[in-house]
Amino acid sequence: MTHDTGPVLHAKGISKFFPGTIALDEVDLRLEPGEVHALLGENGAGKSTLIKCLTGAYQRDGGSIHLDGQEVSPQSTADSQRLGIGTVYQEVNLLPNLTVAENLYLGRQPMRWGLMARRRMNAMARETLAGYGLDIDPAEPLTAYSVAIQQVVAIARAVEMSGKVLILDEPTASLDRDEVQLLFSVIRQLRERGLAVVFITHFLDQVFEISDRATILRNGRVVGTRVLADVSQKDVVTLMLGRQLEAQVHERKPAKAGDTLIEVDGLGKRGMLEPLSLALREGEVVGLAGLLGSGRTETANLMFGAVPADQGQMLLRGKEISVSTPREAVKHRFALCPEDRKTEGIVGDLSVRDNIILARQASQGWMRPIPRAEVNAIAERYVKALDIRLASLDMPIRLLSGGNQQKALLARWLATNPDFLILDEPTRGIDVGAHAEIIALIEQLRADGMALLVASSELEELVAYSTRVIVLRDRKQVRELAGAEITPENIVHAIAEHDAPTEEVAQ
Amino acid sequence: MIRSTHLPLLVTLATFVLAYALCASAYPSMLSTRVVANLLTDNAFLGIAAVGMTFVILSGGIDLSIGSVIAFTGVFLAVVLRDTSMHPLLAFALALMITTAFGAAMGALIHYLEMPPFIVTLAGMFLARGAAYVLSTESVPITHEFYDVLQGLYWKDPSGGRFRLIGGIMVLTFLVGILVAHRTRFGQNVYALGGGGQTAKLMGLPLASTTIGIYAISGGLAGLSGIVFSLYTSAGYSLATVGVELDAIAAVVIGGTLLTGGYGYVAGTFFGILIMGLIQTYIVFDGTLSSWWTKIVIGGLLFAFIVLQKGLTWATQARRRTTTGSAAHS
């Protein structure tokens, strides 16, 4: 890092308001030339809002941005590109129908006599990409190459066009380990060239591997900027989550678990989740803890067959079963309440009754409709049991409050009488009262002998109901906590620590 | 090197060669330059409109208005030349300006209001057809000596084929279209738009001017097509060229352009036009077949090309998966 030249980019007091919320509150960000600067924070902390203000996708409501000492106000992404701020997104933002060279020079092709000089463009592209360690034919279509190479081409385009600040928004999310290393070697090279690189990711290991400093956001505010060589992962996680690491004593209920219901052996999918093993007994709640992007939802989806696994096996009561589609999972009496209930769960315009009966009817097959009276009985039973507050069973479910929608979704799956219930973020976005009720319900279901797998980002909540907690990091199972070990502090330690033996083998 | 993106074009070429060979084996006289010359003359107006349609479809859009715009242009010219003393060249320029502006306006609506091209150009289709009716519901003959001069322009091949002016205009339109599509920034932007509008925006491309330009080209070429059509028929009739937009879309698709945008060649459309013309010529030569067989064969060809495109999409996706996989294991 060189300090003598002053910051490349200095954002001071950036504020951004959305109706009802303050997305960014006086955020400062200072980027030195030749540094990789990580931007960290949980979902909703304001990372992407800050990036969008810097790239002109949003107009800031307060503060100033200085680029090389000059105040700038980018009005659009094209504008910020011209000013020198280039961005590369998680999804490769290049065009699959064009060649590598066409993508690299789109909008600034070399011209001769008013026409594109294609041969010269290809030669220039080959030379440029060689500088990034890529020896590929730029006349080939972009899709002839892997995602990692496409990502490097996207970086090359951003750097060649802008060349002062490079923002990498989760560039490694769909890359595997070797591909990440290819990307990192390119980033290191750019750091040598004096670029300021902003690196956004949920993978803390990668942050510590490549970044010099990190700015941590929480709830739209900067909670600290740290030189990463001076701090541990635990410090960073503590800043991100904003938790005092005090031991909280929880009354642990004795695990009166029954027979083993499900055994998972090495279940995984390349690029999504590293092999994971766990056993679940009847009357047990296993919690899945980890930061956003650590593989919680992926685990839930793999176990339900929403995403087919490509390795490992699953045993139900000692017998091997195949769960490659949700249909098969439902047949084995599995149920999944997804994280994003708006898009993956409720059918907004259907009535509450129809929403509740959906999974039960689906599992029976459409040839055998459930009699109207039985439908009503089932719906009424769960509305009563879960205390879903509604005006009528016929009202569209989208009119219910978030908590009641969540309970109706739970009712949908409980109506199928599952043996194994997977809940992904069951308490996200619902009010405090409903929150407590859902936790009580989880307790109740466990006591009735159901096996539950609950993924949640609320540590206190996990501690309250889990009989065991599996901690995930970077899409990998890193710790399993049981009994008295389950405290928020231990979970945070496990998320942050570098103690998993698999890690060392893999590196 | 043959790339999978070239394959539809190659299939189109092969289809054309095969179709021509079949025709020629049945009726050797179809090889004569006279037939070739007529093929170009008879399909000139459709070919010119199809160039514009190629740009629209490459960008991922559709233009349903061109049939109506062609008819409007014809009626406009006929009425203007009947009722005023305006020189045809000036009338041509006026017609081109009106149709280009009409296309540009539709492009602006599509871009700024984020409306589906299907709806906007459907509205344009009714508007242009309605405007043609307002000008005249009758077929208006065009009798102007300048028209006779233009219609009399041809180059006669020694073996008897007459290559007329309007066929030449079509070939020229295709040549310019090929240059614009493949060798200019605008052309690249058209492909970029078809490859992914959101991505193109993030890459900093001027989407507004590109979208407006695309529909302006389509409108303007429909206007040129209308001029050519009026030279071809010496009349303007508001009921003419109904459904020509669908013929143009068929020609573009048979020419190997992906209906969802992003992949294809202007040159392919040229052969798409020739294939469609060839089928018609064959039916004329045969004499016993109903002319509706043209529609049936074109329908069959369209199905075949759509299936081919879907197969290619699957093949490229499968290849993408394997390349990603092999990179991961290396």
Automatic annotation (TrEMBL), chain B:
Membrane-related topology note: Multi-pass membrane protein
Pfam families, A to Z: BPD_transp_2
Keyword terms: Cell membrane, Membrane, Sugar transport, Transmembrane, Transmembrane helix, Transport
Keyword Metal-binding: no
Superkingdom of source: Bacteria
Membrane-crossing residue ranges in chain numbering: none
Subcellular location: Cell membrane
Record bears the keyword Transmembrane helix: yes
Predominant subcellular localization, coarse grouping: membrane
GO terms, molecular function: transmembrane transporter activity
GO cellular component terms, A-Z: plasma membrane
UniProt cross-references to InterPro entries, sorted A to Z: ABC_transp_permease
Family annotation (CDD domains): TM_PBP1_transp_AraH_like
Protein name as it appears in the record: Putative sugar transporter subunit
